[in-house]
Design goal:
mainly alpha, about 75% helix, about 130 residues
Length: about 130
């Protein structure tokens, strides 16, 4: 992890994000409307955001591990939906959208946004 002044806060926020994704992926009570009825945008956007979030916390040499963990999370959620058989279905297209989101997130991080958390902390300490 990058050297961060508020490391505990970043880790707590990260854990909350992951738990929110797990809950959102496996819950059956809330049916959020998908843009145009196409939930692949939700999958893509969620995993894009997660990739951007975690590439802000770790150095670029860890991006491969970040990608593997996030793709593994997406796969685990699809398997969980399949095994639950409680109104959620596993969809290979959801997995593709998750993976594309991770890929774009890593590409953006490598090009422009990677390691953004120290910049945020520096900006916050000035204000």
């Amino acid at each position: 992890m990058l050297p961060l002044r508020h490391r505990g806060l970043w880790l707590a926020a990260s854990a909350a994000l992951i738990l929110l994704v797990i809950w959102g992926s496996l819950q059956t009570d809330v049916d959020l409307p998908a843009p145009g009825g196409f939930d692949k945008f939700e999958h893509f956007g969620t995993y894009l955001f997660l990739a951007l979030w975690f590439t802000g916390l770790y150095p670029s040499r860890r991006y491969g591990a970040i990608a593997a963990v996030l793709v593994g999370l997406g796969l685990a959620m699809e398997i969980g939906q399949y095994l639950m058989a409680a109104g959620r279905i596993a969809d290979p297209y959801d997995m593709a959208a998750n993976t594309l989101g991770v890929g774009l997130g890593l590409a953006v991080a490598l090009r422009a946004s990677g390691g953004w958390t120290p910049k945020v902390e520096a900006w916050l300490s000035r204000n």
